[in-house]
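Side project, low priority. Logging it here so it doesn't get lost.
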Amino acid sequence: MPRRPDPELEERILNAAQKLWKRGGEKALTMRTVARAACTNTPAVYRRFKDRDDILRALLRRIAERIRKHFEAAGTIEGMAEAYVESALREPHEYDLFYSHGPWLSPPKLADRPIRESRPNFAFLEQQLAKRLGGQPEDYTELGLAIWATLHGTCMLLVRKAIPQPHTEELRQACRTAVKVLLTNASSFQTNA
């Protein structure tokens, strides 16, 4: 009797890969260790993922989708900013994975294209800025980059514990204030205004 495919195997493989990444980073992620952690064999992993990089790309897509859901649930740009920082603090290993391998999400043909084409969550931010401030999403690339840089800098300081613990809430408040100031002065950032 032929074997029936396991519909949950791909999810088990990605869950196992995610746990391995959290535990040991890139060195812990081999096709053999992923197979063992997913309670399957290496050929089964290869049937679903071409190689380890393919697994990493799937994890990156999963992280990007999770961030997008947080953005959509937030309702406001300030809420999106808060969700971004919270997500990084809740899942620091995934945040590290996302920024150490993020370019893998974009096909090479998109490398020289506008950021909104290679980073869907950035495009979503531009859309929210246009909805709130008027104009077209592409009018807000520079403002979006300023917000992203502010958030990423804050996240890196917090995730890497590069700021003394007593000042973490001050940093978070400074980040909130910076986002509000950027939004208040949005007209100075409009790309095509």
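Brief comment: The longest helix spans residues 52-74.
Revisit when time allows.
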